[in-house]
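User: Just a sanity check before I run the rest of the batch. Below are the structure tokens for the first item. I only need the designed sequence back.
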């Protein structure tokens, strides 16, 4: 090696003895995993590789770590947990989601797949296009969309008479299209 343009002690020819993989950057010279991010972790070093022994192209939370879905957020591992306990991708196989603030399994990106409609409140709703909101009776319907939030066998009351549309459920309406208060031989019919 006869030239060292950046003066870091490593020659400009990257394949020679003590070759510099970054000949114009005095803060980096080695790239063990060949992903374009330098191995030097010292404070002030340019683009330090957070995963120097594993090639990767993450750029959002850490540089140079594996990013399976290719949206820029690193996969969990190599010392980093998935969001919300860490900063790594909470959905490493889903390109449209990466954060999950409330940890309920639905992503924070409102334009992504199965976006969390209640990103600040954990929930398990998955019906009616409402994902990740509180569902007190665990029937899949968000409490805000569920006419019977505490009764898992019912969620709708089309005629508003207090009897559920599911005739086979608890307090099922025998006349779901016509409001009524009958309760002896039939429930929810005109009396």
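Assistant: Here's the designed sequence for the first item:
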């Amino acid at each position: 090696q006869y030239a060292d343009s950046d003066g870091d002690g490593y020659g400009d020819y990257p394949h020679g003895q003590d070759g510099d993989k970054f000949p114009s950057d005095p803060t980096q010279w080695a790239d063990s995993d060949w992903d374009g991010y330098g191995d030097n972790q010292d404070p002030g070093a340019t683009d330090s590789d957070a995963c120097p022994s594993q090639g990767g192209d993450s750029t959002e939370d850490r540089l140079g770590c594996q990013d399976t879905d290719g949206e820029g957020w690193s996969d969990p591992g190599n010392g980093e947990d998935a969001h919300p306990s860490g900063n790594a991708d909470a959905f490493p196989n889903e390109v449209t989601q990466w954060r999950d603030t409330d940890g309920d399994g639905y992503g924070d990106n409102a334009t992504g797949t199965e976006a969390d409609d209640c990103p600040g409140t954990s929930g398990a709703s998955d019906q009616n296009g409402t994902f990740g909101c509180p569902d007190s009776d665990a029937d899949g319907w968000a409490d805000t969309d569920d006419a019977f939030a505490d009764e898992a066998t019912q969620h709708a009351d089309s005629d508003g008479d207090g009897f559920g549309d599911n005739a086979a459920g608890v307090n099922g309406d025998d006349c779901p299209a016509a409001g009524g208060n009958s309760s002896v031989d039939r429930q929810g019919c005109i009396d």
